[in-house]
C-alpha cells in the first residue's frame, strides 16, 4: 500500500510539472501570435506615419520604464539573497546580476504585451 502511495505522489508531481510547462508554452505561443498579428495592423502604421515623433517618444518612455522596473526588482532581491547566503561561492556577483536583468528583459513577452496595451 505504501509503495502505491509513493508512486501516486511521484507520478502526480511529474504530471503537474509537465502540465504547467505545457500550459506555459501554449500561453507564450498565444502572446507571440498576438504581438505578430498586432504588428500587421495597418491602422497602427498609419498613426505612426502621421506622428513619428510621438511614437518614438512613447516607445522610449516605455523602454525606460521596463528597464528601470526590471532593475528595481533584480538588484535589491539579489542583494537580499547575498545577505542571507553564508558561503561566498553561492553569492550572486554583479556580473551575474546584470545577466539576470538583461535575460529577463529579452525574454519578457509579457513586457511586450503590456507595452502594446499602454499604446492603445
TrEMBL record:
Domain (Cation/H+ exchanger transmembrane): residue spans on this chain: 18-116
Keyword Nuclease assigned: no
GO cellular component: plasma membrane
Keyword RNA-binding in annotation: no
Membrane-protein topology: Multi-pass membrane protein
Record's keyword terms, sorted: Ion transport, Membrane, Potassium, Potassium transport, Sodium, Sodium transport, Transmembrane, Transmembrane helix, Transport
Record-annotated membrane-spanning stretches: 26-43, 55-79
Domain of life: Eukaryota
Subcellular location: Membrane
GO molecular function terms attached to this record: potassium:proton antiporter activity; sodium:proton antiporter activity
GO terms (BP aspect): regulation of intracellular pH; sodium ion import across plasma membrane
Signal peptide start and end residues: none
Catalytic activity: K(+)(in) + H(+)(out) = K(+)(out) + H(+)(in); Na(+)(in) + H(+)(out) = Na(+)(out) + H(+)(in)
Protein name: Cation/H+ exchanger transmembrane domain-containing protein
Native source organism of the sequence: Arachis hypogaea
Phylogenetic lineage: Eukaryota, Viridiplantae, Streptophyta, Embryophyta, Tracheophyta
Amino acid at each position: 500500500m505504501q509503495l502505491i502511495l509513493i508512486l501516486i505522489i511521484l507520478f502526480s508531481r511529474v504530471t503537474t510539472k509537465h502540465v504547467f510547462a505545457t500550459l506555459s508554452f501554449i500561453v507564450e505561443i498565444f502572446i507571440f501570435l498576438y504581438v505578430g498579428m498586432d504588428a500587421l495592423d495597418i491602422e497602427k502604421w498609419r498613426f505612426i506615419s502621421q506622428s513619428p515623433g510621438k511614437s518614438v517618444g512613447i516607445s522610449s518612455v516605455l523602454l525606460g520604464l521596463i528597464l528601470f522596473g526590471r532593475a528595481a526588482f533584480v538588484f535589491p532581491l539579489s542583494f537580499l539573497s547575498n545577505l542571507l547566503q553564508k558561503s561566498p561561492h553561492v553569492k550572486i556577483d554583479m556580473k551575474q546580476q546584470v545577466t539576470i536583468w538583461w535575460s529577463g528583459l529579452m525574454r519578457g513577452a509579457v513586457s511586450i504585451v503590456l507595452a502594446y496595451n499602454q499604446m492603445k
